[in-house]
Amino acid sequence: xxxxDEQVALLARRCERIVPEADxxxxxxxxxxxxxxxxxDPTAPDVTLGHAVPLRVVRQFQDWGHKAVLIIxxxxxxxxxxxxxxxxxxxxxxxxIDANAKTYVEQVGRILMTDPxxxxxxxxxxxxxxxxxxxxxxxxxxxxxxxxxxRDTFKERFEKxxxxxxxxxxxxxxxxxxSVKIDADVEMGGSDQLFNNLVGRExxxxxxxxxxxxxxxxxxxxxxxxxxxSKSKGNYIGVADPPSGPNGMFGKIMSLPDxxxxxxxxxxxxxxxxxxxxxxxxxxxxxxxELARRIISWLxxxxxxxxxxxxxxxxVVKGGVPxxxxxxxxxxxxxxxxxxxxxxxxxxxxxEGLRKIREGAVRVxxxxxxxxxxxxxxxxxxxxxxxxxxxxRLVP
Amino acid sequence: xxxxDEQVALLARRCERIVPEADxxxxxxxxxxxxxxxxxDPTAPDVTLGHAVPLRVVRQFQDWGHKAVLIIxxxxxxxxxxxxxxxxxxxxxxxxIDANAKTYVEQVGRILMTDPxxxxxxxxxxxxxxxxxxxxxxxxxxxxxxxxxxRDTFKERFEKxxxxxxxxxxxxxxxxxxSVKIDADVEMGGSDQLFNNLVGRExxxxxxxxxxxxxxxxxxxxxxxxxxxSKSKGNYIGVADPPSGPNGMFGKIMSLPDxxxxxxxxxxxxxxxxxxxxxxxxxxxxxxxELARRIISWLxxxxxxxxxxxxxxxxVVKGGVPxxxxxxxxxxxxxxxxxxxxxxxxxxxxxEGLRKIREGAVRVxxxxxxxxxxxxxxxxxxxxxxxxxxxxRLVP
Lengths: 396, 396
Fold this sequence. Notes:
Two copies of one chain form a homodimer. Chain A has helices at residues 4-12, 21-29, 49-63, 74-77, 94-108, 125-128, 133-140, 145-149, 152-160, 166-182, 194-206, 249-254, 261-268, 273-282, 284-299, 302-317, 337-343, 350-359; strands at 17-19, 35-40, 67-72, 119-123, 186-190, 213-217, 327-329, 335-336, 362-364, 367-368, 375-376, 382-386, 390-395. By secondary structure, chain A is α/β, with parallel strands linked by helices. In chain A, a hairpin with a 2-residue loop joins β9 and β10. At the A-B interface, α7, α8 and α10 of A face α7, α8 and α10 of B.
């Protein structure tokens, strides 16, 4: 077991802020199992490598004998966004919430220990459902309008003159109330959650409880190299993504901009920083291969990492054709090539297909197809390829 | 029964705004009894002539066959102001709320008809007490932060940088929800309630109900001649104040600045406007006497008005001594005069008493007392007088 100093040093690698560190040291020194809170929005059950960063920290705590407490925010998900302003906050049924929570727990299970000594899953309807108007008046009286408007997302919208509906001010308070009700010792989150999570600390203090320490991790930049990784922006790698194939982890990691390598290595591995710098300086490409192998070994298995690398080498590096690919029955035809691309799901429209053919990005049975007017008959299984990594087997 | 046009003209006298008038005409024309909502804050049960202005309008509606619905805001009074910022919003017990509501109904009974066909009294805990968090999230989602900040009192405080606690944003919504729950046709209030009462109209519309018409009356200026009349500012005349005596209606009205006469006559009587102007032009003093007589006749009785005028003439105009006054037993003494003034409750301190003696404002049995060192023995009932209108009978 590492000393307190060693523990704090290990956490520091992927903790942008620990508020306050002195409280964390005191809690770690107490010797009792700490309760590490992590909130989950049931309207967005997909766990990405971005979420994996705070989850790795939670796992560190579990390894030291502490308990992760996962809060499923089911109560507010049942309302959605009643103002209808925010399409990303749909109203969910109880069944949808349960299904999403199950999916979520399966995904985080790739990172966290899930036995009952190390993981507790709680639904916040347990305590929010019984609050009365008086409770809510007391809760809302704890915060002022200007305090809420200090929060980045509110501040920006307020200054731009875009609308903030009053119930949006309730959500940080409800999330903070969760910390009171589950007696959180630490709350983990991305750095955009700092304000929300400090509300929990303050509410615990108001209630005369030992306040939680707020730990926030840096936001992982998405595969596009600029924006925060998120499902809605399409720039994400999911922790349950397949190891290989066109949407597999291996290919996505190999396509990362070189500039992201240092942060990905730092946040998603435990390799010493000097070693990371050496690897990247020696060969960004090799550093990507090794990173891809490590992440797949971690989230799938070492065997899956071997297979994904072999497949990637065969298909992309050597221009070969993979062993496995989706199969689509199209009939014998004759077919225009652009129509086949769309039927196979490789392009979104006929015009996109025509453009790809003109660009020379389309191959039929590994032969470049450039005649956009040609008509094809599909008499036997035929491999249709778009770019380096997208393959579909056409059958009659 | 007056026509719709006549009714609207009668209302216009003391209605600053009718929002919208077309809706009011439609409701009046429907022939059904309308529900006229009037809210009451149980933390402030004193009814002043300021409140009498909207209450007179409610009474007009009652005279035309409509029903006053008095909402006792007991639910929020049970919380008070949990932020502790606002001493005027103390937390009340159920007993205090009931006692205050009873006092309030007794006072408004001087103006309103109180039989069950014309008055319905409702406590808003009836519907607010059963609201869940989901109901509250839906309710708060109806309004935006900038809409709330348009309200004068919030706007001013926000711009001055003074704190607005979040629960304060809930109150206008809860008050508006009252209108939904009691199916208000009209909500009456002072002009500082326009924003709050329009929230009720909007919530009714959101709920697919026929929305209430909001009628606001001008704010009556207090006896100081500058600020809105209110108990907390001490510049008020209560509808249950005694007709005469040092805190009686007659004396308070006679002390009004002349500049207030026109608004008091307009808002608190039905005298035609031209006649009011003539009376004031002829003699402000006579206009005050007549106003005092009318208000006392209205809120007490014509006999009380006669008696109050006679008493006022005897004591103030002719410098006489009233028949009735408080009696205080002080023992035979000897007493210093300043000490007697304080014991009698006429001054707050010994030094105030000394100052009043030096000013020549103190009389003993109708003889001016100027020797601040004199010692008095009280062997028999003795009248101690401060200024023109304050008397105490001292007994041994």
